[in-house]
Amino acid sequence: MAGLIAPVARLIDELNRLPGVGRKTAQRLAYHVLRAPADEARALAAALVAVKEEVAYCSVCCNITEAGVDPCAICADPRRDAARICVVEEPLDVLAIERTGEFRGRYHVLHGAISPIDGIGPDRLRVSELLARVRTGGVEEVILATNPNLEGEATAMYLADQLGAAVPIVSRIARGLPVGGDLEYADDVTLIRSFQGRRQVERG
Amino acid sequence: MAGLIAPVARLIDELNRLPGVGRKTAQRLAYHVLRAPADEARALAAALVAVKEEVAYCSVCCNITEAGVDPCAICADPRRDAARICVVEEPLDVLAIERTGEFRGRYHVLHGAISPIDGIGPDRLRVSELLARVRTGGVEEVILATNPNLEGEATAMYLADQLGAAVPIVSRIARGLPVGGDLEYADDVTLIRSFQGRRQVERG
What we know:
Chain A has 204 residues and is an alpha/beta fold. The first copy, chain A, has 8 helices and 6 strands; from the N terminus they run αααββαβαβαβαβα.
């Protein structure tokens, strides 16, 4: 296209490959980079390369870790309860849970969820690593914290089945009304779940 | 934050500096890069660096051009009418107009618009280059195609004033209802403009 020079066209194409970045957004970002100081573009470029070169996977929990740091900081932390393993789909989920400060056990990252429609079976996930980990003993509870959607539920059910008697407790995070949410606007499935998951109120 | 390793944190920070990319989006993009093939990350990094190194500005129209290609492809094209100059704010605007195929003249890119609130006066734009270009003669019409917003209108008025008698015709692109738009939902200013800009219908 006239007016679109090669280096800019190439950058637009590359940005366009990122998830959620359409053609228009890619153009806007590319022209922002053009206007921005060269240092800013170079810093982003360096960070992109570094993330591929300096990131490895923890041999215990399969979460990302800095290259050379294996097991990862969480798995190596003696203050973290090794008897409790929280299973999540993605490294971002670990981040979200860590932010709450609620969980002091360890993690296992599956790197996805079972999705027959996308051709993703258990063999494509880090399931065998989890089972091996549990079989070495010392694990009292596996908390299934996969997403509360179709794929996440299927994955949780599959794992609960596979874990069987290898671990005393297998639990699933609660599904219910989000805090600050409004009952009136809740979808039916969430509402049903929040009834099914109701707990007796302790009284004095 | 626990779970957030240094190279990933750095990439999130850098992505977060892009316009319209919030913290959550930056996280999502960073983890996408982590999962993506290393080649994809490297290609994006290379494109970012290249765009700063291989892009220059045309000494005639101030639009971006490939380094070493000066004047730019449009200014160097003898089929483009040198007597008609379309003034736009940004290189992206050139792209948008070129896409229509409607305009066969040349461009002048201001690289911004007058915005007193942001401290951007005419001296920060490529205004003197435009005036010098027009004064060398041969220009019959300058089409002011700055954005139809406050800054764009102010810039157009300023330029119309500055161009004065140096060019026979100074025109402004039409403002009115967008094609496919709905009169009922048009804002008042647009509706007023579309009445002010009405044209007599030719009848046989």
